[in-house]
């Protein structure tokens, strides 16, 4: 695997923007100590997310470069190196985000989602063929793609009502737009993750990180519920504001996205 070869104990390979903020770097974290690092790409848009897709034979990292276009890195298992891959030009909105996920049941076929210069939500398949999706995303909305109930879902905030929406692919190329929660999200949002809740109710649930360092929980029960569950302090630690079940699982997906270090991780004993 390209990421996460531990030398001792548990090690994690992270992708993040380095001290030179226009660099995309790979860094080894073993316990609380940083190990080797490698510059993977230069001229990356500051504070932009990376979508990392690690399958059996498909290993890609998709990012936004400083010119606002999508860039792609592909990993060569034999050479154990990341290389740039040429794709057709795709221009991202000046505050646009991206997300990616493998198709249901596949570890090689994937979708990448991004907001284009016209604010439209665009889906790219593994041939890099674009399709405009039936959505009206808010400019700069965070995106999260995941498979739920065997269907591809992409979550976003709508420009129509500022509610959290999701598109689900009911059949191939048949996308249905849904409101997850009728809760107005007016604060500037940085990132989000979503899934079915693990509390036995099985409702859709999202955790959202805001520019004010607040973490919101949004649940798709009834008309929708939202509450602030804590903040991230300046040292990067999650400070809970309420009692919340499974709070220990909240840290990794939200804050790793915040720091632009979530992309992949694995462990070796």
Walkthrough of the structure:
A five-stranded antiparallel sheet has the order 16-17-18-19-20, with helices on one face. Strand 4 (51-54) and strand 5 (59-64) form a beta hairpin. The protein is globular and about 50 Å long. The model is unreliable at 1-9 and 245-269 (pLDDT under 50). The protein has one helix at residues 251-258; strands spanning 11-17, 24-30, 33-41, 51-54, 59-64, 70-76, 81-85, 98-102, 110-115, 121-124, 130-132, 144-148, 151-157, 164-171, 174-181, 189-196, 204-210, 214-219, 225-232, 238-240. The chain is mainly β and 269 residues long. The protein has a single domain (11-258), classed as 6 Propeller (Neuraminidase), CATH 2.120.10. The protein has one helix and 20 strands.
% residues in beta strands:
over 45%
What is the typical, i.e. mean, pLDDT? 83
* Main sheet strand line-up: 16-17-18-19-20
Q: End-to-end span in angstroms?
A: 14 Å
Overall geometry: globular
- Give the count of helical stretches: 1
Number of domains: 1
Question: Biggest β-sheet, characterized?
Answer: 5 strands, antiparallel
Q: Which structural class do the helices and strands define?
A: mainly beta
CATH topology: Neuraminidase
The number of distinct β-strands equals 20
CATH architecture: 6 Propeller
Q: Percent of residues in helical segments?
A: under 10%
Q: Which regions have little confidence, pLDDT < 50, spanning 5+ residues?
A: 1-9, 245-269
């Amino acid at each position: 695997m390209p990421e996460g070869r531990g030398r001792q104990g548990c090690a994690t390979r992270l992708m993040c923007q380095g001290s030179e903020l226009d660099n995309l770097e790979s860094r080894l974290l073993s316990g609380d100590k940083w190990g080797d690092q490698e510059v993977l790409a230069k001229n990356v848009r500051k504070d932009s997310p990376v979508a990392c897709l690690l399958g059996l034979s498909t290993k890609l990292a998709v990012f936004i470069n400083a010119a606002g276009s999508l860039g792609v890195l592909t990993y060569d298992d034999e050479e154990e190196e990341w290389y740039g891959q040429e794709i057709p030009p795709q221009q991202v909105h000046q505050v646009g985000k991206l997300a990616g996920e493998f198709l249901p049941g596949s570890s090689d076929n994937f979708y990448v989602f991004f907001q284009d210069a016209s604010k439209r939500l665009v889906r790219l398949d593994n041939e890099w063929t674009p399709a405009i999706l039936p959505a009206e995303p808010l400019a700069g909305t965070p995106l999260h793609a995941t498979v739920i109930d065997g269907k591809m879902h992409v979550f976003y905030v709508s420009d129509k009502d500022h509610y959290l929406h999701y598109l689900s692919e009911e059949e191939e190329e048949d996308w249905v737009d849904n409101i997850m929660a009728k809760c107005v999200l007016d604060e500037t949002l940085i990132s989000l993750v979503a899934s079915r809740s693990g509390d036995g109710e099985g409702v859709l649930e999202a955790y959202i990180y805001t520019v004010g360092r607040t973490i919101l929980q949004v649940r798709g029960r009834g008309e929708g519920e939202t509450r602030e569950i804590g903040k991230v302090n300046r040292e990067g630690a999650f400070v809970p504001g309420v009692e919340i079940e499974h709070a220990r699982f909240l840290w990794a997906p939200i804050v790793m996205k915040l720091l632009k270090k979530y992309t992949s991780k694995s462990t070796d004993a």
